[in-house]
């Protein structure tokens, strides 16, 4: 028999009390693991969503609208252009993973509605744009055939519905008799791409006489890049504006950070309760075994042995509760996620509670450490019991 | 700036709604007044074959049309918008538009009806064609005025033949290319059939019920 | 016969407010190896205090104590708690009126309890079985204390005291919680341990029948030795 087995058997003496203490620790661990998992999962999902946007930074000519919706609000006017070569050197910066050039063009279409209307076209680089937008999936067909000036069109989901186009169908661009063939129709993505008509960059440049010009450069940064510092660098380029998706992320994060503070406060209170529960349980058991601990000392137990025994009991309680809590958190992460999704204003796609090995180890460590702190006083108290005191409490 | 960011956030994270595309007037207030200058108001109703009778109704519609619904966009669940136009409490007429696949894009063919179901006006809300000016001309539209569903009942969209004399008399302003012209006639026939089901049949049924009471 | 315990002027004073209580008052005596010493006296006469001091569970206020010739307490030097623990481990076994068995441990585990704290204590199964057979508890080795009679529990307590092969067994009212039949069993057991295993027994008892087994007697009255 060793001290570990002795501590374990000691805990079995008051099974109900041990169970309640373990249940308290289990609940605290559950809360902790779920919260840490949420903290990580939410940020990951958010990052994935933002990564899914393809580029974190959009470089445009100063004052140029960069959202189709904004462009439409302005009646298709106000587009400004950057020469293609001004952005070539952006590619060489070490922070840049890849870039893609885009030319957004708004054209008055006299055949749209009674009095005509504005149609927005997006010229894209067939080589780089699809790589930057991996979330765009095709309902029919595929991207252009890597030919930057092909007479081909890819339609967003809604654009295809409006135009009643399927692959192989023909389309006309306003003011031109050049026929374009629909080669792909995208699935619904829930983004502005759904309403977009995509053409190869050069085709748009040629059709609308914008040779050598682009309106936007999408920049995807490396994960380790300092976005803020790089943005400052970009501002040194003449007459450009930098639109950073990092702002979007910050806004969302600030929305949830207040919720996080409250949730972590609850976790902290749960911890204090768990710790005081452990302290209370172990202290009670020490007082109950006052004589017995004295006898153990008469058998040759040193203070450090008793300290070790009591602390082992505490660690066992916490480790048991911790493991149960981790299992529960893991098993019920789906339900927790559904609840969080219900209460949160914005919940990104993907797992918003990501419980990984690191979180499990960290939570287990925190819980056990909490238990150890809670157990130190009772263990110290027990270690200092004199054998004589316990014996004398019974006989003179 | 905040509003803009919220817009992007909503765009990125928005719920994915799935629905077939319908055919609405771009500017109903303006368009209703244009076709019915005496109107004082209008009511907008939405109907679909799926909701009005399902697969059975679809078969009936296809039988009357003498053509099957085709492609990705002509489906049983397409929502149709019907505008009932009023002058005070009196019904002045109806406006109904449908989508139709054309050579270079979707056609949006709107018809305005008298309370009895006779076509009053013909109007392309959307049309992409090299000869769009000819098709959009008032002379072409005029040819549809006064026609009723009965004129089109024998018209076969597949062969582009049949129909009453009035239908046969409609001239294609672009004789060298009949794709959009034929698509237009199919759209008009489909519009008449659906309006008959969603508006006039419904009205008759309501009257029948009233009489039965 | 060699002396295993030598006490000289052992005094233990407790303070109760301003009052001084002499639990031991200049007690001088010695105990020979292999003896059974019965410590008797009325309640409160200092019997338990005496055996606690002899068993290194308590310090005397003054006086000197030698165990196996080694100076444990004296006016000049007292041993540290760790050293006292070592002496307790190596020389003494204790049996008390209450059995102090751990209710969740089996008989076997209770007996082996000292080995948890004494890594140097080698307890092979042979030795353990011999002790359990001697005390007639072998067939109970996997039972819990709650399944034992009072006499059996005390025998387990004795077995636990013997597991470290002590030279001296200190038994403080070992039959205080037992009926006369069980008391006799314990009495026989103590005599047997003394005779067959040469263990010195220091026995505190109120029970005159039990005290009779002593071949030496210490009688205390108000902390003073009456004879010896």
Tell me briefly what this model is.
The complex is a heterotrimer of chains A (396), B (213) and C (228). Chain A has 396 residues and is of the alpha+beta class.
Strand-helix topology:
The complex is a heterotrimer of chains A (396), B (213) and C (228).
Chain A: H1 3-11, H2 15-52, E1 57-61, H3 68-73, E2 82-83, E3 96-109, E4 117-124, H4 129-132, E5 138-141, E6 152-155, H5 157-163, E7 170-172, E8 179-186, E9 197-200, H6 201-207, E10 213-214, E11 216-221, H7 227-234, E12 240-244, H8 246-288, H9 290-298, H10 303-331, H11 333-343, H12 357-383, H13 387-392
Parallel strand pairs in A: 4-9, 6-8
Antiparallel strand pairs in A: 1-11, 1-12, 2-10, 3-4, 3-11, 5-8, 6-9, 7-8
Helix pairs in contact in A: 1-10, 2-8, 2-10, 2-12, 8-12, 10-12
Chain B: H1 2-13, H2 28-35, E1 41-47, H3 49-52, H4 54-65, E2 80-87, E3 90-101, E4 106-113, E5 119-126, H5 132-135, H6 138-142, H7 149-152, H8 165-168, H9 179-212
Antiparallel strand pairs in B: 1-2, 2-3, 3-4, 4-5
Chain C: E1 3-16, E2 19-32, E3 36-40, H1 47-54, E4 62-67, E5 70-73, H2 81-91, E6 92-95, H3 107-117, H4 125-134, H5 150-162, E7 168-172, H6 180-197, E8 200-204, H7 208-211, E9 216-221, E10 224-225
Parallel strand pairs in C: 3-8, 3-9, 6-7, 7-8
Antiparallel strand pairs in C: 1-2, 1-4, 4-5, 9-10
Helix pairs in contact in C: 3-5, 5-6
CATH architecture of the domain at 35-59 and 92-225 in chain C: 3-Layer(aba) Sandwich
Q: Helix segment count of chain B?
A: 9
Q: Give the strand line-up of the largest sheet of chain C.
A: 6-7-8-3-9-10
For the termini of chain B, the CA-CA separation is: 61 Å
Oligomer: heterotrimer
Could you tell me the number of beta strands of chain B?
Answer: 5
The SSE order of chain C reads EEEHEEHEHHHEHEHEE
Percentage of residues in strands of chain C: 25-35%
The secondary-structure element order of chain B is: HHEHHEEEEHHHHH
Morphology of chain C: globular
| Rg measurement of chain C, Å | 17 Å
Largest sheet of chain C: 6 strands, mixed
Average pLDDT figure of chain B: 83
How would you classify the helix and strand content of chain B by structural class? alpha+beta
Distance between the termini of chain C: 16 Å
Largest sheet of chain B: 5 strands, antiparallel
Helicity range of chain B:
40-55%
């Amino acid at each position: 028999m060793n001290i570990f087995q002795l501590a374990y058997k000691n805990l079995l003496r008051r099974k109900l009390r041990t169970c309640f203490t373990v249940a308290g620790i289990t609940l605290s661990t559950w809360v902790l693991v779920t919260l840490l998992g949420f903290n990580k999962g939410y940020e990951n999902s958010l990052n994935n969503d933002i990564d899914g946007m393809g580029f974190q930074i959009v470089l445009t000519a100063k004052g140029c609208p960069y959202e189709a919706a904004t462009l439409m609000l302005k009646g298709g006017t106000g587009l400004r252009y950057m020469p293609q070569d001004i952005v070539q050197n952006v590619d060489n910066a070490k922070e840049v993973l890849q870039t893609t050039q885009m030319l957004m063009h708004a054209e008055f279409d006299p055949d749209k509605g009674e009095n005509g209307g504005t149609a927005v076209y997006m010229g894209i680089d067939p080589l780089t744009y699809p790589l930057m937008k991996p979330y765009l999936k095709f309902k029919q067909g595929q991207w252009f055939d890597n030919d930057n000036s092909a007479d081909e069109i890819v339609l967003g989901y809604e654009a295809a519905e409006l135009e009643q186009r399927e692959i192989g169908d023909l389309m006309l661009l306003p003011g031109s008799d050049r026929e374009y063939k629909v080669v792909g129709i995208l699935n619904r993505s829930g983004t502005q791409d759904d309403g977009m008509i995509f053409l190869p960059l050069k085709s748009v440049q040629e059709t609308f006489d914008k040779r050598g010009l682009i309106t936007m450069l999408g920049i995807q940064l490396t994960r380790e890049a300092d976005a803020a510092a790089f943005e400052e660098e970009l501002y040194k380029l003449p007459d450009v504006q930098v639109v950073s998706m990092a702002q979007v992320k910050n806004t969302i994060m600030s929305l949830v950070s207040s919720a996080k503070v409250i949730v972590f406060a609850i976790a902290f209170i749960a911890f204090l309760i768990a710790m005081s529960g452990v302290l209370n349980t172990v202290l009670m058991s020490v007082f109950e075994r006052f004589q017995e601990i004295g006898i153990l000392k008469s058998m040759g137990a040193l203070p450090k042995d008793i300290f070790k025994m009591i602390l082992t009991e505490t660690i066992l309680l916490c480790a048991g509760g911790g493991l149960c809590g981790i299992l529960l958190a893991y098993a019920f992460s789906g339900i927790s996620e559904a609840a969080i999704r219900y209460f949160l204003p914005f919940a990104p796609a993907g797992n918003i509670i990501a419980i990984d090995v690191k979180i499990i180890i960290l939570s287990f460590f925190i819980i056990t450490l909490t238990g150890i702190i809670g157990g130190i006083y009772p263990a110290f108290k027990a270690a200092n019991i004199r054998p004589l005191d316990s014996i004398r409490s019974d006989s003179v | 700036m905040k509003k803009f960011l919220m817009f992007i956030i909503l765009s990125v994270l928005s719920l994915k709604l799935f629905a077939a595309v319908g055919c609405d007037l771009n500017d109903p207030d303006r368009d209703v007044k244009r076709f019915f200058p005496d109107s004082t108001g209008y009511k907008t109703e939405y109907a679909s074959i799926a909701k009005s009778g399902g697969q059975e109704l679809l078969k009936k519609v296809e039988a009357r049309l003498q053509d099957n619904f085709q492609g990705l966009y002509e489906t049983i669940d397409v929502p149709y918008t019907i505008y009932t136009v009023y002058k005070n409490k009196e019904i002045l007429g109806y406006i109904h538009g449908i989508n139709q696949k054309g050579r270079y894009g979707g056609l949006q063919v709107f018809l305005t009806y008298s309370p009895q179901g006779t076509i009053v006006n013909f109007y392309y809300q959307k049309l992409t064609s090299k000869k769009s000016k000819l098709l959009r001309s008032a002379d072409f539209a005029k040819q549809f005025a006064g026609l009723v569903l009965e004129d089109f009942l024998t018209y076969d969209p597949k062969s582009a033949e049949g129909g009453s004399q009035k239908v046969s008399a409609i001239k294609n302003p672009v004789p060298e290319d009949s794709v959009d012209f034929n698509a237009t006639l199919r759209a008009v026939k489909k519009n008449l059939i659906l309006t008959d089901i969603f508006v006039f049949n419904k009205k008759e049924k309501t009257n029948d019920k009233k009489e039965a009471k | 016969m060699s002396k295993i315990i030598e006490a000289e002027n052992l005094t233990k004073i407790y303070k109760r407010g301003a009052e001084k209580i002499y639990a031991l008052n200049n007690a001088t005596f010695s105990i020979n190896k292999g003896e059974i010493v019965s410590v008797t006296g009325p309640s409160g006469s200092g019997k338990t205090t005496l055996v606690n001091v002899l068993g290194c569970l308590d310090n005397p206020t003054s006086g000197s104590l030698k165990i196996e010739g080694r100076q444990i307490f004296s006016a000049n030097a007292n041993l540290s708690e760790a050293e006292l623990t070592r002496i307790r481990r190596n020389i003494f076994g204790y049996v008390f009126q209450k059995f102090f068995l751990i209710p969740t441990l089996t008989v076997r585990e209770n007996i082996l309890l000292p080995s948890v704290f004494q890594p140097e204590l080698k307890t092979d199964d042979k030795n353990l079985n011999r002790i359990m057979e001697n005390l007639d508890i072998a067939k109970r080795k996997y039972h819990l204390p709650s399944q034992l009679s009072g006499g059996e529990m005390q025998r387990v307590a004795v077995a636990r005291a013997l597991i470290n092969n002590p030279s001296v067994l200190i038994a403080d009212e070992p039959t205080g919680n037992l009926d006369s039949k069980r008391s006799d069993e314990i009495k026989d057991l103590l005599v047997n341990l003394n005779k067959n295993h040469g263990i010195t027994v220091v026995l505190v008892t109120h029970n005159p029948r039990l005290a009779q087994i002593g071949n030496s007697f210490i009688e205390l009255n108000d902390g003073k030795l009456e004879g010896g």
